[in-house]
Amino acid sequence: MFKKILIANRGEIACRVIKTARRMGIATVAVYSDADRDAMHVRMADEAVHIGPPQANQSYLLSDRIIAACRQTGAEAVHPGYGFLSENADFCEKLENAGIVFIGPKPKAIRAMGDKITSKKLAAEAGVSTVPGYMGLIEDASHAAKIAAEVGYPVMIKASAGGGGKGMRIAWNDAEARDGFDRSRSEAKSSFGDDRIFIEKFVEEPRHIEIQVLADSFGHCVYLNERECSIQRRNQKVVEEAPSAFLDAETRKAMGEQSVALAKAVDYESAGTVEFIVDKNRNFYFLEMNTRLQVEHPVTELITGVDLVEQMIRVAHGEKLPFSQTDIRIDGWAIESRVYAEDPYRGFLPSIGRLKRYSPPDEGPLDGSPASGMGPSGRAIGGGAPVLRNDTGVSEGSEISMFYDPMIAKLCSWGETREAATDAMAEALDRFVIDGIGHNVPFVSAIMQHPRWRSGEISTGFIAEEYPEGFNGTEADGPMRAKLAAAAALLAKASKRRSASKAPSLGENLALSQESGRRIVFIGEHRLTVDLGETGVSVDGVDLGPVEMDWRRGRQTAMIRLGGETLTPRVDPIVSGFRLRLKGIDVDAKVYEPHLARLAELMPVKEAPDTSNLLLCPMPGVVVQIAVAEGEKVEAGQTLAIVEAMKMENVLKAENRGTVKSIPVKAGDSLAVDAVIMEFET
User: What is the DSSP secondary structure assignment for residue 8, as one 8-state letter?
Assistant: First the structure.
């Protein structure tokens, strides 16, 4: 076995590879840019080598610096993770020429499958079902519109060398086809150095389902069942699960066998993923093959018990797969939520900065029971209790940089059933505390509560269909609002008692006792009367049953039992109350004694400043283009500017008709959140 390997990546995937290598007794080498000098993967590795400035094209994408780091440290092999150089055949060949093993497929397979146009042709030749489209060279935006019309709208415009949702647009008419082509080509060139674009038919009501394959150098290849990745926003996966609630055994077998046939057609070795689009009748069509480890690989590991990173290392070392297709099973259900540095309350715009607080839920069995051991996949062995796994590359104090992908962590849950895994995920998300940046935990938490997710009736259009105006938090219904009011009153009472106590016990269980009384709680437009009894609580005259609470001032979450239900809200003090967040709900609860409540209702509400005549930068980023000039008249929907952040181009459009008064910025400028890009005449 290898004695030392280098991980040519950063963040959570670098940490993930290090964990398996450590378990296998293999020493590890990390590489890092200036921005990652203090990163977790650097601290975890046995050695670390600096490779350049923060920009990926000056550090992580420079193959010569990776090879130099291998020579400097004596690393015998390189694991590329995903992204960066993971699907770069030239890098693979350079490693081979330097006598260094690439932990992944051979250059032939990378080239064949890494190019989406070529891969579709090979898939068709291998008998894999493919979606209609145009695989030839597209000259310009007008040519793209002509082809799109011939294929038939709607169409998907995609970068040939793309991935991760970059360089992808859906077009429903000629105008969108032209604009989508320009944007996709620009993103593809900046992200992958390859601006070739192809167009294919967009399947309506689709599901995104992929098959994990694993092959060795002796001709053995197996499929490890499927992952469903239909919960996407702007073609970027948000929630994945394994298995799919939609597939039957017959379709799963057909998709798996076609995936293996494709892998064998290119002499594939290592782990790889064949992605399909599946329609409502379970007809499936080949999308692409990713010749690397997928971001969402943990859910496959959790239901099969197979450590994919370990098998990649063993295959690269020349070992045979230790199992056959008949050995692969589906054990339980697993869900992965991607925790992103994206603010759902600001249109999911990227958020950068320092993690002032980062407290993920504890990994392992949710019920706290001891496991008889931990399997290579990270799931407890010998018990049916739901289990949590958190793959991350950050810790409290880490910096989320504008130079890289906005992922913070991948929170995974396992349960014996889909319902159990969903409940475990929902509870875990309520326990996840992140401060200092905007993040999507409330949004993913809301998805876990959504009836359509719970039923399994999902598609890639789920987010666009269920949240067409974006996400502003889930509205609390009457019963939940009553529980939140009760929680706020209990928290206020506990906080007041803590202040009055001369010698408090910081670890005490704050069960309801002694003091009782009435509180008025305001949640939005709602006024609720909460009566705190000796052992229980009622809201607007409705008894909520016995109460128990575990919280102390300064703790970020509380455990509150109302009747037979346990709530775990995030608690942040505000003036006269608390901001409470759970299950995707985000409310300010103001708590008053009755005589003060009457006065509070008379207080004027402070109005926000009027910025309707300004175009503000919605996220930290770099101005790519200013599309209008001072004095120009613009129409609603017209493109005003393009700002790039975290490798994605964001098009800013006019909300109303108007005239541009001034533009204080220019292309190339770096802007902060809410920086003025242009002003309009009023």
Answer: -
Active site residues: 288
CA dist., res. 119 & res. 115, Å (int): 6
C-alpha distances (whole Å) from 292 to each of 12, 286, 438, 468 are: 15, 17, 30, 33
Q: How many CA atoms lie within 13 A of 644 on its CB side?
A: 18
Q: Which helix (H) or strand (E) holds 288?
A: strand 284-290
Strand spans (E) along 43-132: 47-52, 77-79, 101-102
**E strands, 540-584, where?**
542-550, 559-562, 565-567, 570-574, 577-582
103-115 pLDDT, tens digit per residue, is 999 999 999 998 8
Beta-carbon contacts of 503 under 8 Å, excluding residues fewer than 6 positions away, are none
* Residues 9, 33: Cα–Cα separation, whole Å: 10
Q: Which is more confidently placed, 263 or 507?
A: 263
Per residue in 42-83, pLDDT (tens digit) is 999 999 999 999 999 999 999 999 999 999 999 999 999 999
Task: Compute the distance between CA of residue 502 and CA of residue 588 in angstroms, rounded to an integer.
Answer: 29
Determine the residue type at 632. Answer: E
Q: What's the pLDDT score for residue 199?
A: 92
**Can you give the pLDDT at residue 506?**
42
Give the Cα separation of 463 and 471 in Å (integer): 9
CA 236 to chain CA centroid, Å, is: 8
| pLDDT at residue 498, as a whole number | 63
Span between the terminal Cα atoms of the chain, in Å: 71
Give the residue among 557, 549, 578, 551 at the shortest CA–CA distance from 431.
557
In this structure, are residues 155 and 174 in contact, taking their beta carbons and an 8 Å threshold?
no
Pick from 217, 482, 556, 532: nearest CA to 569: 556
Q: One-letter amino acid identity for 404?
A: Y
Write the DSSP assignment of 312-355 as a string of letters: HHHHHTTPPPS--GGG----SEEEEEEEESEEGGGTTEE--EE-
| Residue 567, strand partner residues | 560
Beta pairing, strands 197-201 & 207-215: unpaired
Tell me the pLDDT tens digit for each residue of 582-628: 999 999 999 999 989 988 888 777 777 888 899 999 888 899 999 99
Q: Mean of the pLDDT values across residues 392-405?
A: 92
User: Measuring CA to CA, how many Å separate 308 from each of 92, 107, 218, 293, 301?
Assistant: 20, 20, 18, 8, 7
Structure tokens at 544: 């909520």
Task: Give the integer Cα–Cα distance in Å for 376 and 380.
Answer: 9
Amino acid at 102: F
b/e for 186-210, b at 16 or more Cβ within 10 A?
Answer: bbbebbbebbbbbbbbbbeebbbbb
32 residue type, one letter? Y
Rounded distance, CA 78 to CA 69, Å?
Answer: 10
Q: pLDDT tier at 637 (50, 70, 90 boundaries)?
A: confident
For every residue of 455-482, DSSP letters joined together read HT---TTHHHHH-TT----PPP-HHHHH
3-state secondary structure 149-217: HHHCCCEEEEEEEEECCEEEEEECCHHHHHHHHHHHHHHHHHHHCCCCEEEEECCCCCEEEEEEEEECC
Q: Are 223 and 212 in contact (CB under 8 A)?
A: yes
The secondary element (H helix, E strand) that includes residue 5 is strand 4-7
Q: What is the pLDDT of residue 376?
A: 47
Question: Contact at 8 Å (CB) between 116 and 162?
Answer: yes
Q: How confident is the model at residue 394 (pLDDT cuts 50, 70, 90)?
A: very high
Q: Is the peptide bond before 370 cis (omega within 30 degrees of 0)?
A: no
- From residue 412, give the alpha-carbon distance in Å to each of 81, 276, 298: 19, 23, 7
